[in-house]
Design a protein that fits this description.
By secondary structure, the chain is of the alpha+beta class. The chain has helices at 2-12, 15-19, 56-62; strands at residues 42-47, 50-55, 64-69, 72-77. The chain is elongated, with a radius of gyration of 18 Å.
């Protein structure tokens, strides 16, 4: 009976929310102040003169980041 109750509860929960914690608000710093290694991989996006870089090591944990680049909403994913 306990197994059936546990299965019923788990079927109603979204286990992906436990696995992937979205980043609430992106925080950025200038290139001169960043502590990225030269060989570190990034995801990059540029619209006009506005550019952003997202480190793969951070994106690999969170998987999704909602951001606004040059006034355009974007969803960055890895």
């Amino acid at each position: 009976m306990v197994l059936v109750a546990f299965a019923a509860v788990m079927s109603r929960l979204n286990h992906f929310e436990w696995m992937f914690h979205p980043i609430e608000a992106a925080q950025f710093e200038a290139v001169s102040a960043s502590k990225l290694d030269n060989g570190e991989m990034i995801l990059a996006i540029r619209f006009g003169s506005d550019a952003r870089a997202y480190p793969i090591r951070e994106m690999a944990y969170h998987h999704v980041l909602n951001d606004v680049v040059a006034g355009v909403p974007v969803a960055v994913t890895y």
